[in-house]
Amino acid sequence: MNKNKTHRLREVNCPTGLNWSNLKAELKAVWEASIKDWKIEFAYPVSFIRQLISPLIFLMPFLLYGLALIGGRYSENLAELVGNGDMVAFIFTGYIMMGFIGTAVWAMGFSIRRERWFGTLEAIYVTPSSRLGQVLGMALHSTVYQILGTIIQFIVIYFTFGLALKIEGILPAMAIFALMMLALYGFGIVISALGLILKEGWVVSDSLYSIMSILSPVAYPLAVLPTVAQQASYLFPTAPALDGMRSFLIENYQPEVVGNVFLYLIGLGIAWILFGIVVFRLTDVYVRKRGMLTKF
Amino acid sequence: MEGAYQQSVLRSNLSVVWNEIVKNNKTLLAYPAILIFWAVFPIFWFIPFILQGEALVGGLQSANFAQITGSGEYIPFIVIGAVLNSYVNTLLYGMGENIRREAYQGTLDYVLAAPCNKAYVLIGKAISESVSSTIFAASQLTISVLLFGMNITLGVMLPVFFITVLLMLGLYGMSLMLAAFSLMYKQSYDLSQTIGYVFYIFAPVRYPTESLPGWAQIFGKLIPLTYALIIIRSFMLLGTDFSAVYTEVIALIIIDAILLLAGFYIFSWMEEKTKKSGTISHH
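YS: structure for the whole thing
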């Protein structure tokens, strides 16, 4: 009786194409990738705490050095350059961005590399979900992590030095921040693509991070950079975003970047995301064709 | 007869040190990108401080800085701090990670089972880390001199080198403890990073210690890097000699002696403990 029965493989409905069901499935994959990273994070509590306070550790030398240079928190030269000489407010609003540059470069760039170290990259690659979803999941985890670090930073600096920021500027500053993160994610996708190809990807990541941190006016206004560097800084979202955020948060701040910062960041974000996706796709195909996925 | 045996033992031990240096340098040379990175890119980490100085004071001299440090030029202050701190980065993390790397590569068992005194293996590792650190530091200093037009008198380089060696000895002691920790608990990375943070905040790497609160200044006096920076800046920026900083030199030597003795003792103790527990090759 069984001989005549035809066996068919059970069909699994994997949502494909651009539809709500597929998007929901991809978002779930992003969420799960983020949860996985949190679980790994909590498995090493000492490392978790150390990294949580590291934004504060790296901010303090900028402030203490500034105090040693000018003997107080007010710099006349800074006031001439940007309209407000409060060194603490200027550096704090700039430095909170540094960690997020690190998120884009390190967390996203290294997401692929780390999976390769753990030996789980192939397993992730054969799951029926977008590869980019995995990278974005890890970016989500790092962004939340960085936000926690920034909150600690804010509390300590507020109670140690005091901060004079415009409350009404917080919402537009957050909108600028969101647009900047969009462009930084595009940048991070490019770095993670490099991590697929390069054996020692951290050298490239760290080099790019170093260059980007000089081009970002974190502890100084753009005016002190050479003209070529000032022009190069417009290719990255951090310079216009920092300038825009400061103009909303700091009293009497004179923006250095001319034009609508929101439109500029939207354009830059779209360009970086598209560029990132194209580079990632091309790298993905190249690496798989050559069987380089698990090589390191 | 006894003399010949002693000579042979000494030759074997020196051979261990030499081969360890050769092995580490071969590994380093296998990754030229990493070599270039450490020789050049640490400069990019302190450039923001120089630009910050320019933005805050509008020139290359700061009157307030001169009051605190004796010299108003902040660029050489920052460059010297960064270059010496790069020894902390390479030596402190390097030694602990060197042991860990042997475990990753599956060679730690063989290294520890080799019929030689492990102290010589560690000396070989320490010397190779020091050689590479000194090459990187010299490269960073040369680029900084060319880039920022710093004036350096060649005459002070010998005493500066002597103090750098004293700093390295103190760091060896600390890294021996980290290597011991790495043997037993496998993860010394977080500990070495935390020590790096302590050095970065409490030693006068980016700013004079006078900028710190009183309790933090006292804590900073326990760190060998603090003395090395004070002495070397005195030589290079203020043109003083040993007589002006002899108390700092003595303090540095005492800290070195304590750290080295503690380092060797803790490493031998941890090595014995790990061998007994049979967890040497675990990672």
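YS: worth flagging: Chain A has a mean pLDDT of 83.
IM: good catch. Also The interface with chain B takes residues 44, 46-47, 50, 54, 57, 60-62, 64-71, 75-78, 80-81, 87, 91, 200, 203, 206-207, 210-211, 213-214, 218-221, 223-225 of chain A (CB under 8 Å).
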